[in-house]
Structure formats: structure tokens, C-alpha cells
Design a protein that fits this description.
The complex is a heterodimer. In chain A, about 20% of the residues lie in helices and about 30% in strands. Chain A is α/β, with parallel strands linked by helices. Chain A has three domains: about 5-100, Translation factors (Elongation Factor Tu (Ef-tu), domain 3, Beta Barrel); about 110-220, Nucleotide-binding domain of ferredoxin-NADP reductase (FNR) module (Rossmann fold), CATH 3.40.50; about 235-320, Roll (Ubiquitin-like (UB roll)), CATH 3.10.20. Chain B is α+β, with helices and mostly antiparallel strands. In chain B, strands 1-2-3-9-6-4 form a six-stranded mixed beta sheet, with helices on both faces. The chains are: A alpha/beta, B alpha+beta. The structure holds protoporphyrin IX containing FE (HEM). Protoporphyrin IX containing FE binds near residues 66, 98, 238, 350 and 353 of chain B.
């Protein structure tokens, strides 16, 4: 088995300015080998030195395993990650990254509605490619402040046509009208959304009128994709038996706990239904579900072990199991 | 494209005969043998009994709509039009009501009820545990939900005695207009009047789910009329179902002393036991959808405008989905995916509340009651669409 927390040495093969404050980086392996197979929605950790790790979604062609491409938005109040990318990375810079990991997998469905806000377009690009290749019905709603800020917008429209790719530049047509977009749920359609927090919260609210489990989203603060989480293995202590279970980077808490024979009632296993909710006795979870409210997440009393993990700096969670 | 079509078997049995209502499973097994989708002559509807087909109907809410009503008649053809309830509406009307309701009832808001919901269960079960036997329905399943649920919604004390007969009426109306229906509707106007009154903003406490729903009117999400209907939906859909959920779970466990003993040792399995019991003895056994277009289901051609009747109790025991031991209770089985709470767009909003109530009751019982067994056969209730018991004498032992 490949050790996924293993680092890969890469070089920056291309740096391209693709929109206002957005660069696209194409990465090649230093040893000339191919990258491991990855699925739409996957991201890599980019180790930027000085303990700065940032996670960026992959947006290259799935079948081209010679390269990986990421898109990076330069954020003003950046804690330094995107700034470093923008200011110091040039063609030929060596870089260390993790192998691709996926917290935002595309579940097979007959129809898809993709909604992207700004740089949130990146994980959606391979999803679209996959849906198109499999002959699925899909539509993309892509909003941004203005055309100049919307990375890859023109390419997507040219490639798939404006029937399927609906671009909404705020300075031309105003904000996305979510009531129009989500007011009429469709059968057998999944919604995949990625973008700024405010937009995602509004989408969550509208999707409460959709079938449970229809919405899948990836939440990230403006410059860092889920930067608060550890990509290292961690431990879970099962309070009722005192047992300690190690959770590898490649598995969920639910997987790891079930592997040692302890059962947790679960249903969607994707952070959507809330069935597996488990009480946290100590430790700080990194919440990745779409069920708990912000208040619940801050309180850290419960978590969904099907998707949520341990927060950075917290090597052990004690759960009521 | 041509889809190979099968002629549906014409099935002459009557799901609403007294015998088949009281003892549904032999009938459902026979119906299942005639195919996943059959033509029910007695009802002039299609009967859907295969798990995969029931799942398909529940998830394809564009082809199989709810606005025709959950019963056998197309309510859109009724003379007296009434505003649709959440259960009998389609998007986009359903969408707004569902958003309002899910905003109020969700795992987060329900979690906070555990304390309030536990105290009455402790009281009731402590008392019962002093006896050597009791009636698991009339002394427990019918008592407990009525003590916690109306308070959680926030309706007045006065008039609560109408809740059960009202629920009985609403659910029986999802079946044909037989004598059971007629009986349920005796004094129906009075029950409906009292319940409608309880749903008004001024009747409700300010901290219950009812008030939460009315707050959605202020937010501009729903109309006042819709708020009244949503509160009513909770009151009609939330009482009988849970009573039967508790009763049915106990009816299964009272026959399985081995499972009871194991659950006492591993109380964390209680959630699984409840899920598996609901699969086996699903409280909401059957309801309808209406087709909007010509379609194919399980290879059978169904014309537009047809009523299809979903047999939840059959889907949840379909051997193709659950294996050859589908009729047996097993703590080892993963019963997730069962359709006792429906699936998809209309999937039960009250699920977290129902689960909380059932879990608390079972956990309290497991703590205090060492053995539980039947003390005579339970008496099933004669109901058009719900499966449950009127009476279930049990014998218990405790540590004392
Ligand atoms: C064990 C107990 C329960 C069972 C077996 C049950 C079963 C169901 C089923 C099968 C449906 C779907 C009907 C359809 O697809 O047309 C449903 C919907 C619904 N249930 Fe429950 N239910 C239970 C408890 C509750 C409770 C406690 C409440 C109230 C808090 C409730 C409120 C509702 C509502 C409002 C809907 C309609 C949802 C919609 O149309 O979007 N139920 N229930």
C-alpha cells in the first residue's frame, strides 16, 4: 500500500496567470514518474516551508498523470500561504507535496448541478470532466465578482458551451440568485458546491428543501482549503472499552473503529445525514460534515466520525464509543 | 430505444381485507411472488413490493408525485380543493415548506431535548418495573409519546385527547373509504377543529417547534397558512407513528430473549435493534404516488396518471435486498437503507425525534428490566395503513 502521507518531490513546470490574483501551477514529479491515480474532488497538501502547509484542489485532466495542476488565489489577509505561492514560486522551483487525497468525492448519479464561487471552481473542473465522459446530465453555475476574476471560465464555456456552463459575473448581472437555481429540486440530481463560506451557508439553507443527501460541499476559508486539519494519522480512544484505535490518513474514524469490531450506526457515510453522530469526551475534532450547526461545531461536544477528523495539534480524540 | 415490457400479474387479493390488515406478511409474500410490480384488481392501482422498485419510486419524485395524495384517490380531482400539506405537495411548494421544517427540526435542535424526554420515561418505566407484568401498548407505548411530544411542539394541554383520534383519521384516509375509514372519521370534524386550533400562533408556547415554524413566517419563507399546516403535519404524523414504533420494537424484542440479554450487555446496540425492528415491523406500511408520465417500473409499463401503491412492509422484507432470512430479526444485520421512514424528498422529517423517543424508552427498559417476554399473543390493530398493536401483555423480571 502506498503511504499517502509520504511526500512527493515535484518541480513547478508552468506558472500561468489565469485571472485577477489567480495563478495556475502545473507540477511534475522530480523523478519523472507518473502521479498516483486520483479522483475528482481530490486535493494535495503543498508544503511551503516554515511549517506552512496549504491544501489545494486538483484541476488538471484526470487521465494526464504526468502533471498535476492547482489554482491559487492570492488573498489579501493571507496568513502567508497564498502570498508565498504568488511571490516565490516560479518555473523550476522545487516543491514538496503530499499524494492526492480526497475529502470531496464525486458520487455516481444520473444528474449533477455544480455550483462554484470564485476559486471554488478548481475541484469542480475534474468533476465536470468525469460527468461529461460518463454521459451524465449536468450544469455548471459559476459565479464571481467579474469575468476577470473567474479563473478558467472562458475555457469551460468554450469547451462545453453556454447551455451547460452558466457564468454569472456579479458586476454584469448581480449576485447568483439561489432561489432560481435551487428553488426546484430535481430527482436523481446531486448538487456539488464549492466556494466562499457565505455562499455555501446559503446553499445549505436552500438545499434543506432537497432530498437529504443531495448536497455535497467543500468548505474552505478563502486562502486555505481546510487548513485546520492534520494530514497525519491520529488516535481515537473508545471510552467504553478504553481501547485505542489508530486512524490512518487513508481511512475515516468510522472505518478504523469498525475494523476493530465496534459498531456505529451510520447511513450516508458522507457527513450528510447525521446518523453516526458521536459524543466527544475530549479532544478537538476537525468538523467536515454538513449536518452540525456552526454552534455545534464550536461546542465540540459531538462529531460525525464518517468524515470528521482530529484537529491540528490534537493527537487523540476520546469518543463515547 | 425499446424497453422490454412485462405484463403485470393481475392480483386479486385484497390488502384491505380484515385478515390481511391484521396479519399482513403472508399476503405481502404472496404479492411479492407475483412480481415486484403487480396490478391490484381490488384497488385498481399498481402494487409495488420490490425494494429496488419502491426505492426508485421514492427517489424519482418527478415521475411519481405526491400532489395526487397519499391515498388511493387523486385529491386534485376532489371538488373541495384544500391547500396541500407538506406530505401531499411537490416542489416548488414542498421545497419551501420542507426548508422551513428542516430548519426547525434537525439533529441539532432535537439533541437538546434528550433531558426533557428522559425524565418522563424514567418515571413511567420505574413504575412499570415494580410490577411482574404490564401491557406494553396501553401502559407504555401509548403513554410516553403523549407526555413528551406535544410539549416539544408546544400545544396547549387542553384538547390533547384529540391527537390520537385525529392521527387515526389522517392515516386511515390513506386507505380506501371502507368501514375502518368511516369509523375513524366519526366525530372527525370535532377532532380536526381542536387540532387546527392548537396549530395557531397564539395557541403555541414560544419555545417549541410550533413557534419555530411560525418564526419562518416572519422570515418570509412560508405563509401563515403554511405554518398552520406544518404544525398540523407534526401533530398528525408524529404521534401514532411513534407509538407504533415503540410498540412494534417491543413486539419484536419480547419474542427474542437472546437479543434482550445481549442488549443489556451492550446497550450501545439499542439503536441497531430499533432500526432492525422498524425494518421488520414498519409502522407506516403503505401509501401512494401518482405518475406524471408514461413510465416503466420493474419492466412493467405504467401509464401517466396512474396511482401506484408502495408497500413499505414488503420492501423492507424483500429477500432480494435483505437475503433469505429477511423475515427474521438479527442484531448482526445492517438494516440501514430500510424505507420505514421513506427515502429521498419526503423522507421523514421527524426521524430524529422518533428515534430519540424510541431510544430513550428502550434504554430505560434495558437498564431496569432483566427479562421481557410475551404473556399472551399481542392484538394487532385494525388500521388501513399503519401496522401496530392495540394490546401486548408482557411478563418481566427485574433484579428485585
Ligand atoms: C417511528 C416513527 C415514524 C415513522 C415510521 C414515520 C414514517 C414516515 C414516512 C414513511 C414518511 C414518508 C412519507 C412519504 O414518502 O410520502 C414520513 C414523512 C413525514 N414524517 Fe414521519 N414517521 C415517524 C415519526 C414522525 C414524527 C415523530 C414526526 C414529527 C415530528 C413525523 C413527521 C413527518 C413529516 C412532517 C413528514 C412529511 C415530510 C415531507 O413530506 O417532506 N414523523 N414519515
Amino acid at each position: 500500500m502506498t503511504q499517502l502521507s509520504e511526500r512527493l518531490d515535484v518541480v513547478v513546470a508552468e506558472v500561468e496567470h489565469v485571472a485577477d490574483r489567480v495563478v495556475s501551477l502545473v507540477l511534475r514529479r522530480f523523478d519523472g514518474e507518473q502521479f498516483p491515480v486520483w479522483e475528482p474532488g481530490a486535493h494535495i497538501d503543498v508544503y511551503l516551508g516554515d511549517d506552512i502547509t496549504r491544501q489545494y484542489s486538483l484541476c488538471s485532466a484526470l487521465e494526464d498523470r504526468d502533471v498535476l495542476r492547482i489554482g491559487v488565489l492570492h488573498v489579501q489577509e493571507s496568513r502567508g500561504g497564498s502570498q508565498r505561492v504568488h511571490e516565490t514560486l516560479v518555473k523550476g522551483t522545487p516543491l514538496s507535496i503530499s499524494a492526492p487525497r480526497n475529502n470531496f468525492p464525486l458520487i455516481d448519479s444520473r444528474k449533477y448541478l455544480f455550483i462554484a464561487g470564485g476559486i471554488g471552481i478548481t475541484p469542480i473542473i475534474p468533476m465536470i470532466e468525469n460527468a461529461e465522459a460518463n454521459g451524465r446530465e449536468w450544469r455548471l453555475i459559476y459565479g464571481g465578482r467579474s469575468r476577470q476574476t473567474m479563473a478558467f471560465a472562458q475555457q469551460l464555456e468554450d469547451k462545453y458551451g453556454s447551455e451547460k456552463v452558466n457564468l454569472f459575473a456579479e458586476d454584469e448581472v448581480g449576485r447568483l440568485n439561489l432561489q432560481t437555481i435551487l428553488g426546484m429540486p430535481r430527482a436523481h440530481m446531486l448538487v456539488y458546491a464549492c466556494g466562499p463560506g457565505g455562499m455555501l451557508s446559503a446553499i445549505e439553507d436552500f438545499c434543506m428543501g432537497w432530498p437529504p443527501g443531495a448536497l455535497h460541499l467543500e468548505r474552505f476559508s478563502a486562502d486555505t482549503l481546510g487548513a485546520g486539519s492534520v494530514s497525519e494519522p491520529f488516535e481515537v480512544e473508545l471510552a467504553r472499552s478504553g481501547r485505542i484505535v489508530k486512524v490512518e490518513t487513508t481511512e475515516t474514524i468510522l472505518d478504523a473503529v469498525e475494523k476493530v469490531g465496534v459498531r456505529i450506526l451510520s447511513s450516508c457515510r458522507a457527513g450528510l445525514c447525521g446518523t453516526c453522530e458521536t459524543r466527544v469526551i475530549s479532544g478537538t475534532p476537525d468538523h467536515r460534515d454538513a449536518v452540525l450547526t456552526e454552534a455545534d461545531k464550536d461546542a465540540n461536544d459531538v462529531m460525525l466520525p464518517c468524515v470528521s477528523r482530529s484537529a491540528a495539534g490534537c493527537g487523540r480524540l476520546v469518543l463515547d464509543l | 430505444m425499446s424497453t422490454p415490457t412485462i405484463e403485470p400479474t393481475v392480483f386479486s387479493g385484497d390488502p384491505y381485507s380484515e385478515q390481511n390488515l391484521l396479519e399482513p406478511y403472508p399476503f405481502l409474500a404472496e404479492l411479492q411472488e407475483s412480481g415486484s410490480v403487480s396490478w391490484l384488481e381490488s384497488q385498481q392501482t399498481y402494487a409495488v413490493v420490490g425494494y429496488a422498485e419502491v426505492y426508485e419510486v421514492l427517489t424519482d419524485f418527478e415521475t411519481y408525485v405526491s400532489s395526487g395524495g397519499l391515498g388511493p384517490r387523486d385529491i386534485r380531482k376532489d371538488d373541495a380543493w384544500r391547500p396541500p400539506s407538506i406530505l401531499e405537495s411537490d416542489p416548488p411548494i414542498h421545497t419551501l415548506m420542507r426548508r422551513a421544517l428542516t430548519g426547525v427540526i434537525n439533529p441539532g435542535t432535537v439533541r437538546g431535548l434528550r433531558g426533557e424526554f428522559t425524565a418522563p420515561a424514567v418515571r413511567i418505566i420505574d413504575e412499570l418495573a415494580k410490577r411482574t407484568g404490564f401491557d406494553a401498548i396501553t401502559d407504555l407505548a401509548e403513554i410516553y409519546p403523549i407526555q413528551v411530544f406535544p410539549d416539544a411542539v408546544g400545544i396547549p394541554l387542553e384538547g390533547r385527547e384529540h391527537l390520537l383520534p385525529y392521527g387515526n383519521m389522517v392515516f386511515n384516509a390513506f386507505g380506501p373509504e371502507n368501514y375502518i375509514y368511516q369509523q375513524a372519521f366519526a366525530e372527525g370534524d370535532e377532532h380536526a377543529r381542536v387540532v387546527m386550533n392548537a396549530c395557531k400562533r397564539e395557541s403555541l408556547t414560544d419555545d417549541g417547534f410550533g413557534a419555530g415554524i411560525w418564526a419562518k413566517v416572519e422570515e418570509g419563507l412560508i405563509t401563515e397558512q403554511q405554518a398552520t399546516l406544518l404544525v398540523r403535519a407534526l401533530l398528525s404524523a408524529g404521534v401514532d407513528t411513534t407509538i407504533f414504533g415503540i410498540g412494534n420494537t417491543l413486539s419484536v424484542l419480547a419474542r427474542r430473549p437472546d437479543a434482550w440479554a445481549r442488549l443489556r450487555k451492550e446497550p450501545s446496540l439499542a439503536k441497531f435493534a430499533i432500526d432492525e425492528a422498524l425494518r421488520l415491523e414498519s409502522p407506516f406500511q403503505k401509501f401512494h404516488r401518482t405518475t406524471t408520465v408514461d413510465t416503466f417500473l420493474g419492466g412493467v409499463h405504467i401509464p401517466a396518471g396512474s396511482k401506484v401503491q408502495l408497500f413499505i412492509g414488503a420492501a423492507n422484507r424483500d429477500p432480494k435486498k435483505w437475503g433469505n432470512d429477511a423475515n427474521e430479526f438479527s442484531l448482526e444485520r445492517s438494516s440501514s437503507g430500510h424505507v420505514a421512514f421513506g427515502m429521498g424528498l419526503h423522507q421523514c422529517v421527524g426521524q430524529p425525534i422518533a428515534r430519540l423517543e424510541m431510544e430513550i424508552v428502550l434504554q430505560q427498559m434495558l437498564e431496569k428490566i432483566h427479562t421481557l417476554e410475551l404473556d399472551g399473543e399481542p392484538t394487532p390493530i385494525l388500521h388501513n395503513v399503519l401496522r401496530g398493536f392495540e394490546s401486548m401483555p408482557v411478563r418481566i423480571t427485574t433484579g428485585n
